[in-house]
Every structure is written in structure tokens, then in C-alpha cells.
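User: Quick sanity check before I run a bigger batch. Here is a single chain. Can you write out its predicted 3D structure?
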Amino acid sequence: MTFRRPFCNFGREDRAERKPNANDLSASGRGMIKTVFFDLGGVVVNVHFDLAVQRLAKFSPYEPAQIERLLLESPETKKYELGLTSTREYASWALQALQLRMEEEQFVRAFSDIFTPNQEVVRLITQLDGRLQVGAISNTNVAHYEWIARHIEAVAGMRPAVLSFREHLAKPDPAIFTTALARAGCAPAEALFIDDLEPNVLAARSVGMAAFLYPGRDALVGELRALGIAVP
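Assistant: Done. Predicted structure follows.
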């Protein structure tokens, strides 16, 4: 889980315009796909950041809109996403910045319990796993990733998991995609990346990967089959 704006792509940034045929890809001229990388927030999991805001508002003098803006726009959040601060340091900052009357552990729970699985994509990952290498490339922080991996078994099994807080890199920096290719041990033409933000898709394509916007499960299956990936 990039932050377009922070927190696993909470959907605060404008989404790419879905133009007709924008995702058309041809398998001709490409190698056989051996690794499929998924973004987490907005693709594998649904993000409900409003739940965190509502919980925190009960312990803060600030209004929900102020809490959301302060968290999403703070440089501290970006640093946490890039792995430059620890969960304890980030929680301590948030308690002070929001004047929260709660313990650090309470903040982490309220902040992290905001994800639900996209069941159709989770099932698809399970179907692909074992036949292809299935990995993740996501802008996320430690607390969010640990929550997701603890509650969604398919995510815990995604390898390689190339995450912004581990790599100190964030999409759409092309370097995170070249890092993912190295971790997977595959050539760019052998890798596919699926995201819900166009800048990230374009960045993946810039290093030679096949990539497209997440179009919904049925259309996704069609895209995979067009690339020669058999889906039950």
C-alpha cells in the first residue's frame, strides 16, 4: 500500500480518466509474463480512511476535516511512508499534532483498521499463485502493511513485496519498479503491473513492464488473457 496522497492510496488524488481502450495491450512482441505485481490500496484492498478520521475525532479537539487534512498533507506522513520514521515516532507525532487523548497503541489500531479485501482480486491472486510469481508494489507504511498482511492471507504470501517503507522509494519513481524486477529476477518484458493510478502505470511502462489501470475484475481477467495468462 503510495501514496498518491499518503496512506496506501487513500483516493484523495484525482484518479486517472478512464478513456476507451486506454488499457489495450498486445501480447505480441512481449515475452511470456512470469510475474504479476499488484498495487495494494485501491486494487487488492479497499481503503476506508474516513473510519480512522471518525475514530480519532472522538479523542481530538479538531474537526474531522482538519484531522484528515493534517494527516494527509503532513511531511511526517510522507516520511513514515518512506520508512524514514518508525511507527512509534509517527504515532507520537500524531498524538501531539492532533492533541489526541489516547495511547500510542490506540492510535495505531484506529489508524490501521481501515482496510477490507477486494474479494474478487484476492481470489484471483490465489488462482494465479503457484502458476506465476505474484508480488506487490505499493506505497504504504509499516502499520498499514502489517495490518493488511495479518488479516489477508493472500497479501502475506505475495512475493516479492516491494513496499515504499522498505525500499525508501515511492511510486511513480521508476526506481521502485526496477527494484521490483531485480527482486523478482525477471526481465521487464516478463512482468505485469496493475495499479489504480495512471502516473504509476506510465512509470512502470517506462522501464519496459506491461502495465494497466485496474479496470474491475471481469475486465482484468480479459486483460490477463490477452497477455497469454490463463485464468480459470
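Residues 23 and 212 are 5 Å apart (CA to CA).

User: Great, the batch can go ahead then.
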